Amino acid sequence: MNEIKNKQKVSHTKKHPQKRNNTKHKATTKTKKSKPKKVLIIIAFIFVILTTIFIIKMNQNGWTYGGLIATFLGHNSDTVNHLDTVYIVVTGESQNLTDTIMICAFNPKQSKLTMMSIPRDMYTGQNKNKAAASDKINTLYSKSPETLVKKINSITGLDLKYYINVDTKGLRELVDAIDGIYYDVPIDMNYDDDTQNLHIHLKAGYQLLDGNKAEQLVRFRHNNDGTSYPASYGDNDIGRMKTQREFLKELLKQIKNKHLILNLSKYVKIARNNTETNVNFDEMIDYIPYLLDFNLEELDSTTLPGQPEKCNGVWLYIPNKSEIESVVNEKFLSLKN
Q1: By residue range, what is the domain housing residue 236?
Q2: Residue 106: beta bridge partners?
Q3: Same domain for 43 and 112?
């Protein structure tokens, strides 16, 4: 009888550790199952917080291309108030000559962008009786960008420091990168210059221009027979500068409408490969959101005041100092913070 009781006691004793082990195993399994749930809850919580912050920032910066970039850059509604007006000389170069020279000013607080074209034939010498083709402003960039900027400062009274020079090859690549640009060519254009390997043949009218045709458009000044834009448009260099400004405005508009964010890295690469500049892009990056949101229909553009004149057998553009002072005060100095 005692042996039977002892066996039952041993058997009863062995059952308790097994129960405890089973309980411990179940608790461990439950803990393991709960961990993924806790991680998912934490991730979901973080996502909600980040989404909320993003929405708040987007509401501050605006639900636009510029607002999206501003949000990624960490901007808020007060950022723009700390950005000064930026002034830059923009040039377009072909075969060491600048066919395009512009002064651009952008005030992000006022949301104002102004461009003023400078005729490539503008006279930079001292004695018109001894004037030569080398006295034209478009020859100065080949000496140095700083020489060109210094001369522009002396003529306008501005204190420009920055310049960006764009090779026309970059224009061709950019237009091709956006699959062409639609533009209303104002007149039939037919011009050939074998020395520059420049051949311009465009029909008037609204059409899709590839990179090559876009370059033809912005470089056209007159036809082979000497005819040019109508006087009402502005003939020769005045007409070309007007076309350049209008084309640039349309180009920027169409770039914004063609998946800008998705292709931004491609556009930046083209710009870096085809520009020479002293602009620090790290300093200028904060201006990008406000440029993207700028209404291009409000772009203010003009031409440096002056008149063409034949001097010593050379056609030059003679600047009008009093009118230049008035235009500079109205369109550029008024943008200073």
Answers
A1: 85-335
A2: 86, 113
A3: no
Q: What is the pLDDT of residues 223-274, one digit of tens each?
A: 999 999 999 998 899 999 999 999 999 998 888 877 777 787 888 899 889 9
Residue type, 169: K
CA proximity to 324, closest of 119, 177, 132, 136: 119
Question: How many Å apart are CA 85 and CA 106, to the nearest integer?
Answer: 6
Place of tokens 């040039």: 91
Pairing of strands 86-94, 162-167: parallel
CA distance 265 to 269: 6
**Residue range 146-161: mean pLDDT, rounded:** 95
Give the count of alpha carbons within 13 A of 199, CB side only.
2
DSSP-based three-state secondary structure for 287: helix
SS3 (DSSP) at 278: coil
Cα 275 from Cα 202, distance rounded (Å) = 27
CA neighbor of 173 nearest in space, from 280, 268, 241: 268
* Bridge partners, residue 165, by sequence: 91, 276
pLDDT digits (tens, 9 = 90+) for 293-316: 888 889 999 999 999 999 999 999
pTM as predicted? 0.77
> Hey, which residues does 182 pair with through a beta bridge?
208
Categorize the per-residue pLDDT at 4 as very low, low, confident or very high, splitting at 50, 70 and 90: very low
Tell me, yes or no, whether 194 and 309 share the same domain.
yes
CB 175 within 8 A of CB 181: yes
Residue 63 host element (H or E)? none
Structural domain count, the chain:
2
Q: How sure is the predictor about 289, in pLDDT bands with cuts at 50, 70 and 90? A: confident
Alpha helices in 62-98 (DSSP H): 65-72
